Amino acid sequence: MFSFRKLHAQCSFFLLKPCQNPRLQSTKSATKFARKATLKEAQAALLEYLHSTRSLNFLDADNMCRNSPSFIQDLLAKTHSHTPHVNTKRCISRYLRYHPINEFEPFFESAGLSPSEYAPLLPPHMIYLNDDVLLMENHQTLCNFGVPRTKMGRVFKLAPQVFRYKPGILISKLQEYEKLGVSRKTLINVVASNPCILVGGVDFDFVKVVEMLKSVIGKDCDWIGEHLLINKDCCNWRVMFHVLILLSRVFNEKQLGDLITRNPGLIFEESGSCVLSLIGFLLKFGLSVNRVCVMLQEFPEIRVVKFLSNLRLCFLFLTEIEMEASEIGRILQSHCLVLGSFTIKRTITLLTNLNVGKKRMCRVVKDDPLVMERWALGRRIEPLVNSYLEFESRALKKEFMLSLGYEENSKAMNESIKLFRGRGAELQERLEFIVNAGLDYEVVCKMIRESPRILSQTTDRINMKIESLVNEGYAMSDLASFPSFLSYSAQRVKLRFSMYNWLKKHGAAEAGLALSTIIACSDKAFEKMYVNRHPSGLQVWRDLKAQISSMA
């Protein structure tokens, strides 16, 4: 009998477990094993060449073979010994017999440098390591002292002059530090991460830093090397020592020890200059020394340089939304720990996404500064809900528009309400101002329906444009026939009237032109129709433009 259950089980096997094909898994395992075997044979061939043929120290040769994967891969590619059914070791040995390699390449790579980092360090006229006697002697001195071969890369990168010392100088520098009380383990870690202490004379600031850290932490400073790796360049031990002195004046030994143990970046990031900048930034905004101390004790798990950058971005944001300096200081004083813990979005992005203006943004932040945390990079932003004042203003606008003769909720009303700028009470005030200037109420209502934008200006601007209109000899009835006149900028109005008066004076334009004819056309059309009527018209036009622009 046909069984659906059996068929379902067979289908599930093929559909749900395609990767459990025993043959496929066997092929993958075999390929992986073959790659490992090829790599081991290549390393063995290179080790035999470097140690037996080139007479390099066995430990150096072994380190070069084990820790230079890029060089090994290039060697395999050149000899084609990575292909199946090829004796990799014999193939590479034959290649090395007739093709000498640049031994500095695997040497630098095994020290922890990438090909792009060690390229500038390669000697131009040398390929054999034993030919550079000073390099190998100083390298061996560091190895014998305890610096791991694989961590020698930063010494080559930050302090290459160390490998040019004459015999005995390098070991004497190391012993000098030991005599001053720096333990060998601490010295090994510091040299591997920040080798500049070996350049020049004894760095007594480094010794002072180690002594001070020992006294406040109560144990040896073997751990400082790993924290120095965050610095791309050599440490400035003098700055670090001054930072420790500064902190020791406001914290007792136990507090300072706990602070450094919990957040070593305070003194190690950029040699402590970051925390100095942070303290200065906070003091500038009115934080007391005690408040700064509390802030450092509660410092979040974030790099100091990033924390300071976040604080500055928040300050820039508050400045760009035109918040008062006193309010900015108050917010930074009370919420600096939170504001430094996230990266705020750009101001223009926030204004656009929140669909608000700078004034409302200021009110929102003043009411609840922690709202800025919701505007961090990577977080989705929702437009702010309209406040009661905005609802009230919109209701007044709607009431005002109904009084103008608009039909409630009509398309014309919804389109016009978007063009009005200002609160509802301000719109009524502007309408009454135009009426008081000498026009009938019904006429002004009709003007507004035809050109709603005329009420998007303050009464001062409206007054200035009406005065310029009257001064040019036009009546208020001319404004009724061309209400858009009030929407144009004061500069445009002044420029057109000035040019028109000049043309009339020189007989190039007739008197009594309509307002719309003078103002509404584009500059290009105005030049073509009127300015070019007089030979000097274009030059006068340009001069007037420059004069009026400079006065703006």
UniProtKB/TrEMBL annotation:
Q: Which residues form a coiled coil?
A: none
What protein does this entry describe? Transcription termination factor MTEF18, mitochondrial-like
Q: Which organism is it from?
A: Vigna mungo
InterPro entries from the UniProt entry:
MTERF, MTERF_sf
One example of a Gene Ontology biological process annotation: DNA-templated transcription termination
Whether Transcription regulation counts among this entry's keywords is yes
Keywords from the named record: Transcription, Transcription regulation, Transcription termination, Transit peptide
* Gene3D superfamilies, A to Z: Transcription termination factor 3, mitochondrial
Query: Is Metal-binding one of the keywords?
Result: no
Q: Which GO terms describe its molecular function?
A: nucleic acid binding
* Family, as annotated: Belongs to the mTERF family.
